[in-house]
Amino acid sequence: QVQLVESGGGLVKAGGSLRLSCTAAGPTFSGYGMGWFRQAPGKEREFVAAITWGAGSTYYGDSVKGRFTISRDNAKNTLYLQMNSLKPEDTAVYYCAADSSVLIGAWSDLGSEYDYWGQGTQVTVSS
Known about the structure:
The chain is about 0% helix and about 50% strand. The protein contains no helices and eleven strands. The strands form two sheets. Strands 2, 4, 5, 6, 9, 10 and 11 form a seven-stranded mixed sheet that branches. Strands 1-3-8-7 form a four-stranded antiparallel sheet, with no helix packed on it. A hairpin with a 4-residue loop joins strand 7 (about 70-75) and strand 8 (about 80-85). The relative contact order is 0.32.
């Protein structure tokens, strides 16, 4: 089975930047749709961003659009999330996820559509 591991989280001041990485062991990301989700204490899991296989089209949740950028390096089995202009409300545990059965070019903002998940990395933005 695919195992996903997130890294790059930490403590940053408001207005700063972080880059999260997600690496996979086992099968490669070839043909997979990939996404990032986040969950703050006491809150429901929230869609952050997704990227398709093939053309690499990207999609973002309204709360991060214009500030975050999702990308992938298929040869390295690595997914990235570049986070700029961070706000205290971005504080959460960030999870990467993979959808092994997605049609080419398709994407989803629904967590139930993804079948592989990492354990998360903590991002804390101070005010």
